[in-house]
Structure formats: structure tokens, C-alpha cells
Amino acid sequence: MLHGLFGARGNFHSICKQLSQNGRKIVPYDARNHGDSDHRPEMNYSVMAEDLLGLMADLKLDRPVVLGHSMGGKSAMTAALRQPDALTALIVADVAPNPSPHMSRMTDYAEAMRNVKLPEHLSVVKARAEARLQLSSVVQDRMVREFLLTNLREFAPQQIGWRINLDAIIDHMDELARMPGLDSEPFTKPTLFIFGGDSDHYKNADFGLIKALFPAVHTEVIPGANHFLHADKPLEFVEIVNNFVRDLDDSQ
């Protein structure tokens, strides 16, 4: 399971618990420059697809079902198009292979985070309150602001900073808007796209391109869900994923 921009593997904690109840092995991980993963200057879907395929090989995962949300969805699509035999199936959550909307806003958020100035010797709680205040003029959506603030970490006693590599993200935001390989041979294995009905990613999705690249595609839309559909409508999201994977099991 691959998280989105500014996220971490913990974003899927409750979803993983629900999906693993039938004995499935679920492997969420932190993308490069996110969470506990290494900070590296290179940041694009080619290298993140390599990271995914390398992790699958290291963990000896035999043709898993790969699920990716947003940035993670584009990484997963890139990996599927490059090494289709490495996957059994693909699940993409609220993103499409065409350019993502509102990436300039994401750059504004990242730059606002980079510009946060924190006094020394603050607790995490007080540092988060100070950062919240400084971000509020740029990141006006309260839920988004709180999501970004989960990236503040205490690296040493009363030494607080961002755990994500904001420099690399900002430098490569144009590459994160687009995924490579749109002239690839199609991925012909079972593919599920799940969109939030209120999401701009759904409203801007190029369904012709999706069908061309992923001809065995099935699309589900969750009414009332926005971009963070797994958080907005977790029960519906889990049911859709479970049904898709159950159908895969029945067909084998």
C-alpha cells in the first residue's frame, strides 16, 4: 500500500487492520523523502516505481496486489506498466495517469512548511501549535493543515523539525504532477480505480487514457468522498477493495 504526497504509511493504519482481518498480509511503507524513509535528492515516479519493485523483491512478495493513493497511485501505475509480471493486480485510489490538478497549491503548501520558523526548546505540542499558526494563512483548510502537521517530529529532546524532505519535493513538483510511460504497452491484468465522488481528481480524470493503459479496468466512485476517500468513507473503501480482491481469489 502506497501513500500520497505529504503522507506516511500510518495513513493506512485503520484500513490495514480491516483488510488484514481475513489473514491477508498488508505491507504499507514510507515513500522516499517521507516518513521514516531516507531523504534523497531524486524524486519522480520512475525512481519511486523502482523503490516499490525493489521492496517487493527484498520482501520476496510474489506478485502482490498493489494499492496506491494519489502520488502512491502514480508510483504503482508506473511500476505496473514497467513490470506487469511482478503484480497480480492493481488498485489506484483517487488519481489518474493524466496530470494531477492543483499541484501549484501543493507547492504553496510545501513552501509554507519550509518557511515555518520554530523557536528552540519547544515541546511537540507547542511546536505544532506554532506551526499551525504560521501555516494558517496559506493552508486554510483545517483538515489539510492538520494532515501536514503530522509531519512534525521530535528528532531529539525539544528539537522539532519536518520529517519529510521538502527541498526535494519542491524541486520536483512538476515531475510529481505527471507520470512517465504513457506510451507504454498496456497493463492487461485486473485493475481497479476508486474515486471520491467529490474529488477534483475524479472530475479531471481522463477515462479514455485510463482505459487505453489499463484495459481490464473497473471503476468505482464513492459518493460524498473527497480526495482522502479512505479517510472520508473507510467502510465503503474497504468493502470495494475486499470485493475486488475476493473476485481475484475466486478467479484463480
TrEMBL record:
Residue ranges of every copy of the AB hydrolase-1 domain listed in the record: 1-234
Keyword Kinase: no
TM spans (from-to): none
Name of the gene this protein is made from: LOC101856337
SUPFAM superfamilies in the cross-refs: alpha/beta-Hydrolases
PANTHER family cross-referenced by the UniProt entry: PROTEIN ABHD11
Reaction(s) catalysed (UniProt annotation): a 1,3-diacyl-sn-glycerol + H2O = a 1-acyl-sn-glycerol + a fatty acid + H(+); 1-octadecanoyl-2-(5Z,8Z,11Z,14Z-eicosatetraenoyl)-sn-glycerol + H2O = 2-(5Z,8Z,11Z,14Z-eicosatetraenoyl)-glycerol + octadecanoate + H(+); 1-octadecanoyl-2-(9Z-octadecenoyl)-sn-glycerol + H2O = 2-(9Z-octadecenoyl)-glycerol + octadecanoate + H(+); 1,2-didecanoylglycerol + H2O = decanoylglycerol + decanoate + H(+)
Annotated family: Belongs to the AB hydrolase superfamily.
Designated name of the protein: sn-1-specific diacylglycerol lipase ABHD11
Annotated EC: 3.1.1.116
Top-rank taxon: Eukaryota
Keyword line: Hydrolase
Organism of provenance: Aplysia californica
A Pfam family assignment: Abhydrolase_1
